[in-house]
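Notebook, bench 3.
Goal today: get a predicted structure for Glycosyl hydrolases family 43 from Paenibacillus typhae so we can plan the truncation constructs. The sequence was checked against the plasmid map this morning, with no discrepancies at the termini. Length recorded as 477 residues. Pasting the sequence as submitted so the record is complete.
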Amino acid sequence: MTLAKKQGMNPYLPSWEYIPDGEPYVFDGRVYIYGSHDRFNGHVFCLNDYVSWSAPAEDLSDWRYEGVIYHSTDDPLNPEGSMCLYAPDVTVGPDGRYYLYYVLDKLPIVSVAVCDTPCGTFSFYGHVKYADGTRLGEREGDEPQFDPGVLTEGELTYLYTGFCAPGDKSRSGAMATVIGPDMLTIREEPVFVAPSEPYSTGSGFEGHAFFEAPSIRKRGDTYYLIYSSVVMHELCYATSKHPTKNFEYQGVIVSNCDLHIGKYKPAAKPMYYGGNNHGSIVEVDGAWYIFYHRHTNGTAFSRQGCLEPIHFLEDGTIPQVEITSSGPNRGPFEGRGEYPAYLACHLFCKAEEMYTGGFGRSGAWMDSRFPKITQDGRDGDEETGYIANMTDSATAGFKYFDCRGIQRVRIKVRGYCQGFFEVKTAWDGPSLGQIPVGFTNIWTEYASDIRIPDGQQALYFTFTGNGSASLASIALE
């Protein structure tokens, strides 16, 4: 069997790496990704230390591990590592150094670390504070700080923070705070730039009020505030000509379960198991992308980074993009060779369920009825993920392939199963053929002569039968 040539894929990092909350930046011709760091089979969010990966701006398939950039124990308030490092952000200060802003999971304050390079070892620097030394988040009347996003312009740094659960009237929305050139001391006190759900009536943010994950970018003279709304699975955005006021809601950029997309399915049908979302936009080599994350392993605590190309309309708005397997490739995969099953962008079954966990849920609850992307090894093991729990009706979808002359389809399967995989080019489309599978406790290859129509195609594999199959890969010949 011929392996597919190297191409950009989702998730864009190896299947054993779990970096959600991605904040992408281009420094010196390379794209760097900063985020929190989940653990495979973790019992809570963000159990691992911060690491970074980078890729050449011209090749988003060539990611390089940059190593650990900051340990949770590097913060003087966390010497035993009992608190986790939540979603961070990075900015270049007026002095040319790189500043890492973060929040520990049990504290309401913003910590800062600094480094001379974008991916070296960061050192603790201090806490964001008022001029009198009181830390932001601890003064009477302050709302707790969470999910810092930062943008530096000249001598000033704009800090965006907040976490606002639906119905919680004690949280007003996303905050913007202006910091001076020392990267710590507040110049302008917090103001609210996007409302929480209880305060969204009449704001234009109704139904998509601020939940968490503020991230800020500037394009031309317009500031884009990207955030996770109260429905969690979507990344929304608001725009303004000013960094701390007059933000207007604009729409959804991406949903990690493809809700709202209605061109190939009912708009309200989830095509993957959604959950909290966090990410941002970036321009790379003349093209723009949205970075986001998806949920794996049937829990909320093993999240992987994905990205999709986006485009701007003449008025500066961003149409919502669908989630794909081939997003970093900026086009379909070559319709030849073998592809790992963990690239599936769609995954569902007849026992339809939208959420893997998150706010108001235990986080680890999905049972064996639901297919899930997982792995056999421990956290960090360099192995290839696969899809488990493919019981009757379970469907894995892959988008997209440039198919030309494909006459045969192969799959690798294991499990106590008896039945067949049906191959389709639409989630509800007609069958192009079937690949029978049987009981096996080792990865076994099965194949059938199935002609795939020429052109750009999505491919869906639906299991029908008894037992539970695991799917390792698909291949086109």
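Residues 358-364 have pLDDT under 50 and may be disordered. DSSP finds no helices and 31 strands in the chain.
Flagging this for group meeting.
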